[in-house]
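Why do we bother with a discrete structure alphabet at all? Because it lets us treat a fold like text: something you can write down, compare, and reason about line by line. To make this less abstract, here is a complete entry for Rieske (2Fe-2S) protein. Read it the way you would read a sentence in a foreign language you are learning: slowly, and without expecting to understand everything at once.
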Amino acid sequence: MTSWLVAATENDVREGKIKPVEVGGTRLLLIRVEGEIFAIENRCPHMNCPLQGGVLVDHSIKCPCHSWSFDLRTGAYVASDKIKVNVYETQLKDGNISVLV
């Protein structure tokens, strides 16, 4: 069963920045790009490297370990959409960012 859980306040996630959080036992990254807040799993499927040290480029994050890039909107590896990381819906309400986990 999934539910909305508060992950951070709106002020915790600044434009173009990566905010690691743990929500309901799941390690995620909250990232704001062009005003939209994305939630993506903090784990590269290649070798389980944390994505939190990665580099943001437009709507993707590049893994710091082996340079694999993942689309923040879909979780798809940019070189093959057959490889993905989990992405989660977000909502902003009353100054809080919630994630559907």
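What the structure line is telling us, in plain words: DSSP finds no helices and twelve strands in the chain. The chain has a mean pLDDT of 96.
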